[in-house]
Structures are given as C-alpha cells and as structure tokens.
Amino acid sequence: MFSGMNPDLEAPIYKGLNRYVNDGVQLMAAFEGAIAATAQPLRITTCGLLKAGKSSLLNALTDHIETELFATGATRTTVQNQTLSHQNFVFVDTPGLDATEEDDKEAWNALSTADVLLFVHDPGVGELDQAEINFLSELAGQPGAQQGLEERLVVILTRLDSNEEVIDAIAQKVQNQIKNCLGIEPRLFQISFTSYQKGKLEGKQKLVEYSRIPLLQQHIFENLARLHYQFEVLRQGRIDESCKQLINKIDLEISNRTEKIIFHGKEFDRAYEALTKDADKLISTLRTKFAAYNETY
Ligand SMILES: Nc1nc2c(ncn2[C@@H]2O[C@H](COP(=O)(O)OP(=O)(O)OP(=O)(O)O)[C@@H](O)[C@H]2O)c(=O)[nH]1
Ligand SMILES: [Mg+2]
User: Which architecture, in CATH terms, is 40-226?
Assistant: First the structure.
C-alpha cells in the first residue's frame, strides 16, 4: 500500500528504512502524509472499482451538474487523483481500483490521508466481489484505520435508477458482507446520479428527491461536519499508530538480525574451538612421530 505523499526515495532516511523494512518507505510516507494533513479541511475521498460511478457522485455532491468537474465516461476515465475544495471539505476523486497497478497506487496515495471514505459500488453487478472485499480488508488494516471506521466509511450504491427491483436485496447483502469482513455496520446510501442531474436541469424536484443525493448531502454537510472534532482525534490516532508500527517493525528486524549474529557468532566460536582442538591433537601426534623418528635414525 502507498501513502499520501510521493517520498524522495534518495533521501537518507528512506534509503536507511529500505535496508531494514520492506514497507518502511510506505509507512514513513504515510506518517508524513498524516502530519501534512493536520489542520487541513476534512478530506472526503471516493474509492471503488472501475466505472462504479465515483466521479459522477462527486459532481452531484458538489453541484457540478451542468458542467462536470470530475470527468466521467463509459471507459476508464479517472487516472489521477483530483481534488476540489467545497463547503469546508476537500473532495478527492480517485482512479478505479483493480484496473492497473499504477491506478491502484495512485488511489492508495489519496486513501491514506482520507478522513471520510465514500466506497462506491455498482449494484448492477450484484453484491461485492472478492476484489472489493480484499480492498476493504486492506483499508481496515492501515495504521489506525480501524478506529472510527464505522463513521468514516460511507457505502454508496449507484445507479438506483436502473436497479430499482434488486437494489434493496443487494444493499442487505453488501451490508452483511461488510459486517462479516470488517465487523462494522456503516451507513449505506442508494443514489442515482442521472436522476439527480435530470431533476436539477429540468427543475423536477420529485426526480431530485428520488435520486436520494440530497439525503447523502445532508449526511455529509450536516452530520459529518458536526463530527469535525472527532475526525481530528482520529487523525491524531492514525499519526500515533503509523509511528508505532514503523518503530515496532524496525525493532523486530533489529532483534531478528541480532539473533542471527549471535547464532552465527556461537557457530563461529564452536568451529574455532573444534579447529584449535583438532590442530593441537594433530601437532602433538606429529611431534610424537617426529620424536620417535629422530630416536630411531
Ligand atoms: N444510469 C446511471 N448511470 C450512471 C450513474 N452514475 C454514473 N453513471 C454512468 O456510469 C458511467 C461511469 O461513471 P463515472 O462517474 O465516470 O465512473 P467512475 O467510477 O468515476 O469511473 P472511473 O473513473 O473510470 O473508474 C458514466 O457513463 C456515468 O454517466 C447513475 O447513478 N445512474
Ligand atoms: Mg472517475
């Protein structure tokens, strides 16, 4: 996994870390990213598979309906993280997961500094697939991520308009999957971007309500905004945890290496003792032999 910053890998601290821990660079950069985020507005970051509807969702939430700000499309569209400051929050759009390695790396760059995670899923493909479950487990495994995850994670089912008959059943399944995998029951919203867009453009309030985007906006701009202080505390927790993880990993690696050195040191001592014993025996045997030879001739 990757951090919220692009570290200077040539810097002595990163070179040093590389010599000790495999993911030391990522952990250090996660720590630096978390520090850099202190006192910044809360970050609301999308995540989800390719074409789940992440960018459309952010256009709806930030009212970019007529002219989209976050590019959308039928084929792989978002390849770089994109941010927008809106109503005391920073909204971050990420590339679809599981498409290419670079896209995943770019998305993780944004995810490590996210306060709120909008996990976007297309119910048209059914419940969550294994790649999504693996992603959620990895997300929960990040330093300090478990704390407050129930509030930080918001699950969004898009395309309500095309999945009306099945979406409730899928929502139930998705909630069960998340409970089984993370042990939490985060809020879940079913939304329709296209209904919201049409409703807004044509002044049809019923369509706007049907899209349930206003409900999600209310949750973000009222409920989550109220939890600002709690999110600050969670940020601090993530900083502390990434420090702790890094130090623990280095400590463990140093004690593993020390054990190996002691083991090899003992092996060396034993080999040295055996050599000197053997050599002494040989020399004394030779001396006896030579003495006997001298006496004879
Ligand atoms: N019918 C319907 N179509 C939607 C909805 N949300 C998004 N779409 C369409 O789905 C396609 C993909 O949407 P995007 O918002 O680009 O999806 P994305 O997850 O950002 O895609 P990548 O950035 O490529 O991973 C677009 O053609 C959208 O118009 C929705 O609620 N209903
Ligand atoms: Mg996109």
Answer: 3-Layer(aba) Sandwich (3.40)
